[in-house]
Design brief:
- This protein has 2 helices and 4 strands, in the order αββββα.
- The protein has one domain.
- The protein is of the alpha+beta class and about 140 residues long.
- It has helices spanning about 1-25, 100-135; strands at about 45-55, 60-70, 75-80, 90-95.
- The strands form 2 sheets. A two-stranded antiparallel ribbon has the order 1-2. Strands 3-4 form a two-stranded antiparallel ribbon.
- The protein is elongated.
- α1 runs antiparallel to α2.
- It comes from Aeoliella mucimassa.
- Keywords: Bacterial flagellum, Cell projection, Cilium, Flagellum.
Length: about 140
């Protein structure tokens, strides 16, 4: 029974990391400079998940862990803004290639998965309490 808590907890941690990457992508969707202050568009980050065989249950369940945090290889969006301080010689500014709709759908999916893991923890807790009540 405790392994189901561990499996659900691993799902909570993984989805929280995914939401962190999504929030970072949305927060930086207009960023035109890197951390050194040089003109360079922010590159969106995406979290990949991997099955964690260290967390498993006798019934065949397995946990999840962060496989990697990848940086997007998509080219930046080029906007013609000759008066912008980060414009190149032709007057184009590089903006991050972040699609707000895709990020919001991913955020909703991560939120639903997070809620589902919390639901499993609540159900497991109720089963444990009822089992102890029957035994006592």
């Amino acid at each position: 029974m405790f392994s189901s808590f561990d499996i659900s907890t691993s799902g909570l941690v993984a989805q929280r990391m995914r939401l962190n990457a999504i929030s970072s992508n949305l927060a930086n969707m207009s960023t035109t400079r890197n951390e050194l202050g040089q003109p360079e568009a922010y590159r969106p980050r995406y979290v990949t998940f991997q099955t964690d065989t260290k967390i498993h249950s006798p019934g065949g369940g397995a946990g999840v862990r962060i496989g990697s945090v990848e940086t997007s290889n998509k080219p930046p969006l080029m906007k013609y803004q000759p008066g912008h301080p980060d414009a190149d010689a032709q007057g184009y500014v590089q903006y991050p290639n972040v699609d707000m709709t895709t990020e919001m759908v991913d955020a909703m999916q991560a939120t639903r998965a997070y809620e589902a893991n919390i639901g499993v923890i609540e159900i497991t807790k109720d089963m444990s309490e009822q089992s102890l009540r029957i035994i006592a």
